[in-house]
Amino acid sequence: MPNTQELYDARIKRVADAVQLIEPDRIPIVPVFQAFPVYYMNKWTIQDLMKDYHKCTEVYDHLYDHFQPDLGWDPILFYPVNYMETTGINWFRWPGKHFDNSNVMYQYIEGEYMKGDEYPEAIRDMTKFMMNKWIPRSFSKLSGLAKVDFRNSMWFGHMGAFAAFSDPEVQESFKALFKAGQELMDWFIYLGEYQAHMKEKYGIPPLYAGFAYAPFDMIGDSLRGTKEILMDMYDHPDELLELIEVATDFAIQDTIAGSSGKATPYVWYWLHKGVDDFMSKAQFEKFYWPSLRRYITAVADAGLTPVIYVEGSYNHRLEYLSEVPKGKVVYDFEYIDMAAAKKALGGHSCIMGNVPAYTLSYGSKQDTIDCVKSLIDTCAPGGGYILDTGTMIDDAKPENIEAMFETVYTYGKR
User: Fold this and answer.
1) Are 331 and 321 in contact (CB under 8 A)?
2) What secondary structure letter does DSSP report for 275?
3) What Å distances lie between residue 172 and 42, 134, 175, 177, 342, CA to CA?
4) What percent of the chain has pLDDT above 90?
5) Residue 109 CB neighbours (<10 A)
6) Residue 94 has pLDDT above 90, yes or no
7) d(Cα 239, Cα 156) in Å, to the nearest integer?
8) How far apart are CA 41 and CA 61, in angstroms?
9) Which alpha helices (H) appear in 67-111, and where do they start and end?
10) Could you give the residue ranges of the DSSP H alpha helices within 328-394?
11) With 90 as the cut, is the pLDDT of residue 1 above it?
């Protein structure tokens, strides 16, 4: 029986082989669990975990006592409510505050946190825009940052900049930031401790080194909103493209700096607005793909491994996806013809996916077995395949999760 270090090393190699288009000893399994660990244990609620993240240890240990993937999540998906209360976050809803049901997942609420006529301001100085506009609009208890400006601090200009800190609203905002900073750092320390625990107790490597988004989505998700940014392709096309380039530059720098040197090299990109149904191929070619390709390529060239979590349908986007470094990128698909994905990317990029959530939640055990076998038959030959769930998993049947793992362990052996 291998010890946990041997299990850890074998899992690291198994996934790395798949990424590099080498047939591993077994098909790697890397499911994306969301609320499932909470529902599976059925002791604590999502509200309980967000109020006290230390309870996550028991919940995730229960999960890994029964299911051991080749890369695993720490409890990062259960954000702590303390810093959210401290900052007064406006675009997030969570159980216990906004929902009566204590055991439902939190929700993001898009808003127009940058106006259409503010593109020039954001392009000229993104740092100032974030401090003076986006943060005060996004966090009710940080409104005082709108009054802080260091741009003209040279020579005795600093006196005016420093005098702003006499304002009670500014002082209260910085007090909130100090408190939120400590709350977040405590959480980050806990996550690091749990990753070490995963390795020592189970031999499971962490699933991620960092997270990323398509530059178009960064602006659409957090600044403009979906409807607004899709209209901006018509109303503000040049300014949108210019801001996308600004966002891409700092995203590349921040991602490489923040993700390098971690236990695993996987940077997960969460794609949202480039799907078949949201924009035409011409719009995808102009507004979405060039910056994302540049971002993916830069991160891959830095020795990290982009894992592109392709939410939604990309059946009409496959022709573009091979325009990245060969054997260095993983595409994780939600809704797509996996045979078509294998044909388009086989021998070039590892593909990942995509056991449907509806099969795991509503299908039978045999349905799950048949689905997993079909995916392995379709995607595994020649290497370059990792089995994953099509979406983040919440209320799946435990017997179907068990069937998914067991089928990979047996049918997925080389």
Assistant:
1) yes
2) S
3) 40, 18, 5, 9, 55
4) 97
5) 11
6) yes
7) 35
8) 10
9) 81-87
10) 338-345, 357-362, 365-379
11) no
β-partners of residue 351 are: 331, 385
More confident residue, 1 or 190: 190
What architecture is the 4-110+176-411 domain classified under in CATH?
Answer: Alpha-Beta Barrel (3.20)
How far apart (Å, rounded) are the C-alpha atoms in residues 226 and 212?
18
CA nearest 314: which of 348, 346, 351?
351
CB neighbourhood size of 168 (10 A): 8
pTM: 0.95
**CA Rg, the chain, in Å?**
22
The SS3 of residue 56 is helix
The dihedral built from the CA positions of residue 118, 106, 188 and 7, taken in this order, carries a sign that is negative
Asked if the model's pLDDT at residue 48 lies above 90, the reply is yes
Q: At what angle do helices 237-259 and 289-301 cross, to 10 degrees?
A: 20
Taking only the tens place, the pLDDT of each residue in 288-310 is 999 999 999 999 999 999 999 99
Q: Residue 414 — very low, low, confident or very high, per pLDDT cuts 50/70/90?
A: confident
Helix (H, G, I), strand (E, B) or coil at 246: helix
Which amino acid, 36?
Answer: F
363-397: per-residue pLDDT in tens? 999 999 999 999 999 999 999 999 999 999 999 99
Token look-up 């960092």 returns 210
CA distance 78 to 57: 12
Query: Greatest CA span in the chain, whole angstroms?
Result: 75
Alpha-carbon span 46 to 153, nearest angstrom: 46
Sign of the CA dihedral running 235, 241, 243, 244: positive
Q: Whose structure tokens read 């919940």?
A: 59
Q: What is the distance between the alpha carbons of residues 380 and 23, in angstroms, rounded to a whole number?
A: 8
What are the φ and ψ backbone dihedral angles of 398, each rounded to 5 degrees?
A: -55, -35
353: left (phi over 0), alpha (psi -120 to 50) or beta: left
